[in-house]
Amino acid sequence: MELTGCGTALVTPFKADGSVDEPALWSLVNWQIESGIDFLLACGSTGEAATLDEEEWLRAVRLVIEAAAGRVPVWAGCTHNSTRTVVRLASQLRRVPGVACVLSANPYYNKPTQEGQFQHFLALARELDPIPLCVYNVPGRTAANLEPETVARLASAARNIQAIKEASGKVSQFAELTHIMPRGFKIFSGDDGLALAAIAVGAQGLISVASNEAPAEVTQMIRAALDNNWSEARELERRYSRLFDANFWESNPSPVKTVLSLMGRCSDTVRLPLVPPLAGTRARLERLAGEIGLLKHAPIPAGVRSEVY
Length: 309
Hints:
InterPro entries: Aldolase_TIM, DapA, DapA-like, Schiff_base-form_aldolases_AS. The chain is an alpha/beta fold.
């Protein structure tokens, strides 16, 4: 895998009735690409994949690929805590032309051992082969950390396990990964706020939440860091660090969808068990978005309102 840079973990826009808003998703893809994003991830956790049924999930992946039209690589999220189920889902993804890579998080809730995670990801990789697999370590959501030694075992055991999205929150874990992983294996930060620190110790990019709202600026920050232009990278981080934090004032992606709705990009509708941010949080988000310049060219659509489904 040669890809580096910044990828957006896309939100999945919903209409007021809770159905997927395909025109809004198409528009978001075009805006992201026109803003210079390096790649796109459809149906990750920021895309509320856990609340999409299988037909919606596959349709959303296909739509993002169709809208991207080869201009940037499109990754597809594919996560489940049942290995049998995730392998079955992967077999469906194999029939979708244009999937550049599959991202899959640790099995959640089960709290598997390192050997359990190894066997889980190995089974998924074998089903996907030759499509590349990026494993996603996000213990804050899954209650299971994927240790660097296990990642190294996986890369050795399956040729198509070629990357990791690392969101343990530990810079030391990024450093260990860069020390033990083979050349060509890609390490992406899963935390906007740790992206520069991760790149400083050897990571190759970021899979971002904040680039939903500021794709050009977050991509510029990552490219500057990768080019060793640290003064520019740090200046952009200082400007947008409050946004990185704000996107998690309440459960992701409720805050980012609220900001996108204020920008006129899509509705802020989310599906239960997520709910729109509290009124006080929404007011803080609107104030912050205005202060950092996200709203200056953003018409607010009439009639946009919060719903949950």
